[in-house]
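re: the backbone from monday

yeah here it is again, tokenized this time
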């Protein structure tokens, strides 16, 4: 199920879209202001953001410019303002679409599906909690900041993420390291790698130790 963040101060619209999205197999999280939206963006993962332009505590355009380097998902602007200059501005900022209120539900759902296709074609991104991994650039981001891993650390972390929800044995991880390093890596070295990964992420809860067996990264 795809997760959408709606940033909209109109409660009627929020409630209406919540029902509409459930009908169309989307999970909706909504924020009535930019402060709440920022909290969501820095703590959760989304497949799409629908962002109103005029909000109680600021302007959606300015907010998007502020956080666009922290997010790797498509953004649709949703607003009552149909001025051509504003539409062009929103698209020039990097939004994939600009929808004017009032909107038709079927049209909105179609545009959302198109935006999600844009995401899938644009970048190969893995999301877990507040962490994003760009598979093409091998870049790991958390809360808008890059986490600098060595090639071996990245290899270990990616292997665990790809097997999220499953216990990965220490032997299986060491086999992966051996493939990259070209020489044998012992058990103590692996422990050091896991410790460094946790420290660099700034979170001890992402990689769980399964005593006597290996490690597990839980799905959200």
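seq for it, each position gets an aa:
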């Amino acid at each position: 199920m795809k997760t959408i963040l709606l940033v909209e101060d109109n409660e009627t619209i929020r409630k209406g879209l919540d029902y509409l999205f459930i009908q169309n197999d989307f999970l909706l999280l909504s924020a009535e202001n930019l402060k709440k939206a920022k909290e969501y963006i820095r703590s959760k993962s989304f497949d799409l953001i629908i962002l109103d332009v005029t909000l109680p505590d600021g302007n959606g355009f300015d907010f998007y410019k502020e956080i666009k380097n922290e997010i790797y998902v498509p953004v649709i602007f949703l607003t009552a303002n149909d001025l051509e200059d504003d539409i062009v501005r929103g698209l020039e900022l990097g939004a994939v679409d600009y929808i004017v209120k009032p909107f038709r539900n079927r049209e909105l759902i179609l545009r959302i599906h198109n935006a999600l296709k844009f995401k899938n074609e644009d970048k190969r991104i893995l999301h877990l909690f507040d962490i994003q991994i760009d598979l093409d650039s091998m870049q790991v981001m958390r809360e808008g900041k890059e986490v600098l891993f060595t090639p071996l650390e990245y290899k270990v972390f990616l292997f665990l993420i790809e097997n999220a929800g499953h216990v990965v044995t220490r032997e299986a991880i060491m086999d992966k390291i051996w493939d990259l390093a070209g020489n044998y890596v012992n058990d103590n070295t692996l422990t050091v790698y896991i410790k460094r990964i946790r420290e660099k992420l700034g979170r001890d809860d992402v990689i769980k130790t399964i005593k006597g067996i290996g490690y597990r990264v839980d799905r959200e």
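The domain at 2-122 is CATH 3.40.50.2300 (Rossmann fold). The first helix runs from residue 11 to 23.
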